[in-house]
Design goal:
Layout: H1 3-11, H2 15-25, H3 33-41, H4 53-74, H5 76-85, E1 89-90, E2 97-98, E3 105-107, E4 113-116, E5 120-125, E6 128-129, E7 133-140, E8 146-152, E9 169-173, E10 178-181, E11 183-186, E12 196-202, E13 207-212, E14 215-222, E15 232-239, E16 243-247, E17 261-262, H6 268-290, H7 309-322, H8 329-345, H9 347-351, H10 364-375, H11 378-397, H12 406-419, H13 422-431, H14 438-442, H15 450-456, H16 471-499, H17 512-527, H18 532-538, H19 550-571, H20 601-607, H21 609-616, H22 618-630, H23 654-680
Helix pairs in contact: 1-6, 6-7, 6-8, 6-10, 8-11, 8-12, 11-12, 12-16, 13-17, 16-19, 19-23, 21-22
Amino acid sequence: MSIAKLFVKVFGEDIFEQISTVEKQQPEDDDDEAGCSASQDTPKPPKLDEMKLPEQMVLVRNWLNERLNVIELNSVHAIKTQRVDMVSRLGPEQTICDIDFTSTVRISADRLSLRSQGSFNTIKANVCVYGGRWMYEVLLHSKGVMQIGWCSNKCTFNENSGVGDTKWSYGYDGSKQQIWHISTSKYGDKWQIGDIIGVIIDVETEKIEYFRNGHTMGVAFTKLERGPGISFFPAVSLGYNQGVQVNFGNMPFKYPVEGFLPIQPKPIVRLQKADLLLGYLVNLSSVLAHNPTCKKKDHIEGKISTKKTVYVVFTTLLIEKLTHVLFDPYVIEDKLLPHIINLCTTINATDKDPAIIPGTPESTLGALLSILWNYLENEEVKYVMRKLVNALLSIYTHTHTALDYGKQKNAITILTCICTHTQTRKTYLEYKFFKKHCLALLMYIRPPEYKYMQQLVPDPIVWTEGVGGPKQKYLAQVEKIAKATESLYNAQKNLLILLLTNTDGDELAPSSRKIFISKLRRYVMDLSMEQRPFHSFFLMQSSIMHPMDSTVALSFICILIDATKLLFERELPAATVEVRPEYFFDGTFEYQHFDRVGGVLSHLRKVHRNDISTHLGAERAHELLEEDRTMMRVGELVDPSMFLTTTNLNNCHSRRAGRSCCHLYTFLQSAFESCARSIAW
């Protein structure tokens, strides 16, 4: 493909056609002396056919620079208007939570997600306002005692007083449905995990108002305390183990309120440039996906064919410009994510082949992800991928209405398309899914709100085994809930099975399944209440910020077992799905420090030594007993992945395949026992 044809497909214009038109309009050379002298004084522009590739690329680069410069010129007025509107804002351009590391609040790297480890901690932003109309949003990670609102620069807080407990601060607590300003009064709705609380202030009219999931709860405060030198900071107070994620405008608001500005200025120029460049990059990805040299039979995962030099040059040019604007969370969520969603939902119109799965090398999405992995640094791509999954997780965990799980299903479907790309999938398994309960939360279906459940299953139709009640009416409502969540559960299970792919590994790189099991094992180790202080003190690498809710843990284990059973049926249809009792005491399975129903393994081996000798022989039983005696706690520092081996179930002997599946199945059974016991306690 010539550079002129590729330019039209990628950029939608033809600058080379203009050159050809100019050539045709130029008069032929005359033989007279005047014509000769004129041609010698004025050099002719080179013809298109005579231009070499570097010269053509100079034209393309200049054209693209001109388009980007036009965006900057057209944005001057909008930027000036934004600065005028934000004249009453004081502080740095980037708005974050102002906290030092001596506090008992755990804070994320971007300084926007908070979880309190103290009795009552107060955190405020590093920016204040003294006039105008402003807002910020808070995503609730818990639903306990928290006070959210505004405080002035004169406020001082401690473990006993938070936002709203002083004369110069104003707070709302949705767990108690109260507002606080020295005294307290009834206000608002009872909040739930996943709610987004909008907090607005109009300094001129002296009004503070709160919104829950886009719906106003009414004016909370009027007649604010004002005076010379008084300004207002966004602030939150958190009870023990309570957590939130604050958005000051660092990312697009989920429920913007008309007429109110974000605390952090919107990156106007970066957004427009990113939208333009990403559109061009998607067009180029579509060309690469349809290029015969990139078809599956000639494709190596993670590699883009470089036989066509113009492809590489165009991609390099676009990536060079994109790196200046891409690494902004606002840009990733507002521009990159919609492009990816479009590639997932309009696959037929984009790739013209319904058989092509989004995320595979033959798809536009797969080509786009491969471009990012090949032309950006690994750490840069990891950053972008983390922000993408954070945005999808925020959508998934957001409160749903009644039994409408449409947004949650779409988020899982989009993530499945992204994870179809092998390198992206392995990166998520290695660095993201087992951090801060990410995958567990994605596998949890949150029940409807309590008010709706009261309407759906009122007390008169509740039925309990052995107690009585209208059983048929009760089961009919239960079936209604099951049908509403069925499609979401199937989408979750499809994602989980994709993450357990066992055919994408080789001698140099482990398969997705092997990474999954290794990370899952370490994840359960970190979740152990007994070992968390040990890891935190000695290793400082625990992936757990806070304990997992029992309902989330149980849901995660149940869907893992369900997916494992399905894999047995697919990969070992003739094998009997069973786990021999000897597996738990003959040394095959390495428990490490996992809690077990019935007692510690070394204790059980002593108590049941005679039974073990009968099954394994006296010599092997003695060896196991000696191993228990010499086992030191520090031995748990060994990388757990060395104890977990998986094999390709499609290409190996059934006995080895069965052993691989048993590693996963018995590990899940052991984890399920531990989880069930913790819930019972």
